Amino acid sequence: MNKKVMVGMSGGIDSSVTAYMLQKDGYEVEGVYLKLHNRTDGYHERNLGYIEDVAKFLNIKYHILDLADKFTAEIYDYFVESYLEGTTPNPCVKCNKQIKFGAMLKFAQDQGSSYLATGHYAKTDGKFFYEADDKTKDQSYFLSQVDKVALPFMMFPLSTYKKEDIVKFGAELDSAYKRITEKNESQEICFVETVYTDVIKKHSNIDRPGKVLDEEGNVVGVHKGYAHYTIGKRRGFTVYGAHDPHFVTKLNPKDNTITVGKKEALEVNEVVGINLNMFIDDIDFDCTVKLRYRSTSIPCHVKIENKKAYITLKEAAFGVAAGQLAVFYDGQKVIGSAWIEETK
Fold this sequence. Notes:
Largest sheet: 6 strands, antiparallel, barrel
Number of helices: 8
Strand order of the largest sheet: 13-16-15-14-17-18
Shape: globular
Strand content: 25-35%
Number of strands: 18
Distance between the termini: 52 Å
Radius of gyration: 22 Å
């Protein structure tokens, strides 16, 4: 059996400890660093410095895989366009599917590796994803769009560990690792250095004041430009004479208006999903669903017809945004996902 494993290494503590663990388990380990954007602020140089130190400690080689053009076309442009279209994107989900467990997996296999390992906190048995033991770091939500043909080749050695234990272990392992534990954790979206609107501003003038509407279409206030808002946001706009909190319920890019209402206006009982990625063959089933990463799972019924998922929630959800992901769970097992097209 070929025990060669390619480890996706970011320069962070999770992937660095992953490489160590696999080597201790007897695997032949190589690393690969993804260059996903052409930042000129020393970002890649810093990351590669950490990887170089770890690679020397482990005596392994590592590769640099430049996917910046593909990442721009498939992830970055989608991110910008989604906000301009008035939806809320999830670039990490797209990146896992198309870049990390698409292009990076192919690279690993082309290099003769039997597996691709990463520092994700999740589990897989080769057929399904499962939640990690550390629920505060679980990333099964972000993996749920990955093509099921990739699952038999994926390894997540951190699946049973808590993040703080990995940091503590790394700090005591070697100075190469201790240095990594002393740096700031990277932000969730790698190309967003501050806030998402700073990225969008590079491509469009989003600072265009517009009208705030109520649910009946009456003008009740002003806002600073629709792209500054997401569904459920309650600040950054004016509602004349309002005493109760108001929340964004709709965005209309065509006329640069936003619609607001009180909290009950955010209530959602039905969700329609498209671009399904299913790990089961059932088309009519009960399960739980997460409608955004940090939300709790909600019991629901799912019916799949004409390549769409019709999700009937058994408890109301609030502030569900088109463009986000609905992930279906059977207990801790991910059984499928769909991109949210509309809510009712």
